[in-house]
Amino acid sequence: ATVGFTLVRTDGLTSAAGSELHWRWTPTAEERLLSLAAPTPASPAAGSTSGIPRVPEMPIWPGFRGAGRDGRVRGVRYETNWTASPPVELWRQPVGPGWSSFAVSGDRFYTQEQRGEQETVSCYRLTNGAPVWQHQDPARFWESNAGAGPRGTPTLHDGRVYTLGGTGILNALDARTGARLWSRDVTVEAQKKAPEWGFSSSPWILDDVVVVAATGTLLAYDRATGAPRWTGPADGGSYSSPQEVEIHGVKQLVLMSGVGLSSVSPRDGTVLWQHAWPGFGIVQPAQIAPGEFLLSTGDRKGSRRIEVTREGEAWKTTERWTSLRLKAYFNDFVLHGGNAYGFDGGLLTCVDLKDGARRWKDGRY
């Protein structure tokens, strides 16, 4: 039996959380990608595909979960009758492994991927998928269940692309050319090694700093130069990303971590308040209203609604309810019409935001 296991390898997990097994001597998907010809960057005039309008030069999706890190697209309506008007594939472009999603501005979109021993930030044309530029660092993160590649998503701001790689490389790149403007190693400033599934935070820009989370510790860098500005408290393991909120007129950064939900001042990283709910921070906190949040610990302890209040300089958090009917793990919540929608394990579920009671559940995914 032991000899038999040496003949196979795992290329990660299936959607049902089983191992995706292949013969050890067969090429991996990444090896098949690398065997192709290197992508040729598009010319400046590329992207004028007939029948597809050029996208206005504006950041329409600046990073992980959008402009507010809340998963909302504003000012757009979609055709939802896919029987009468089904989606149409416009183009397809192979990319390397990774868990990164996309940032979009004008006729360009940006993502992170792994190509052999090079951790890569890539820019492509939105209209036809043609490559524009690639920035590469000699780094590789790999884990047998989650596979190879960076985990975070690029953030666009003022003509720059900010990225955090799986091993802790923080880059500021020119969005037009991919040229590196500055770079930092967050493992040095945070004094932490890469966690089990890699650094997964997506950068956040607030005023003149860029903020990232190094497995539960927030770090801020000067946006223009990359100089370290402040380091927040070490709050235990986390794969969540910093998120900007404003409560009672005070701008602040919140992060789900091993201790629960923490809020710090963007000026110097001092803690404003914490709501203790120890767990495993993966899912982003969902802001229901100013000072009210829906949380999930990421380790199947359920979901919780809290309220944050302020009296003078003192902050207080109050638990409104905790429900075992929605245990978000990897996928973030959707808030709509007084309800929260998400995955309770493999069940698509809807709960009432008033009390956490389940309205319905359906399907197994």
Index terms:
globular; four-stranded antiparallel beta sheet; about 375 residues; 3 helices; mainly beta; about 40% strand
How are the SSEs placed, and which strands pair?
Elements: H1 2-5, E1 8-13, E2 19-23, H2 29-34, E3 103-105, E4 108-115, E5 118-125, E6 131-137, E7 142-143, E8 147-148, E9 155-157, E10 160-164, E11 169-174, E12 180-185, H3 186-190, E13 204-206, E14 209-214, E15 217-222, E16 228-231, E17 243-247, E18 250-257, E19 260-264, E20 271-276, E21 286-289, E22 292-296, E23 303-311, E24 314-323, E25 334-336, E26 339-344, E27 347-352, E28 358-362
Antiparallel strand pairs: 1-2, 3-4, 4-5, 5-6, 7-8, 9-10, 10-11, 11-12, 13-14, 14-15, 15-16, 17-18, 18-19, 19-20, 21-22, 22-23, 23-24, 25-26, 26-27, 27-28
Descriptive overview:
The structure is a single chain. The chain has helices at about 1-5, 30-35, 185-190, and strands at about 10-15, 20-25, 105, 110-115, 120-125, 130-135, 140-145, 145-150, 155, 160-165, 170-175, 180-185, 205, 210-215, 215-220, 230, 245, 250-255, 260-265, 270-275, 285-290, 290-295, 305-310, 315-325, 335, 340-345, 345-350, 360. The chain is mainly beta. The strands form eight sheets. A four-stranded antiparallel sheet has the order 3-4-5-6. It has a four-stranded antiparallel sheet with strand order 9-10-11-12. A four-stranded antiparallel sheet has the order 13-14-15-16. The longest helix is centred in the first third of the chain and has 6 residues, at about 30-35. The radius of gyration is 21 Å and the shape is globular. Mean pLDDT is about 90; it is low at about 45-55.
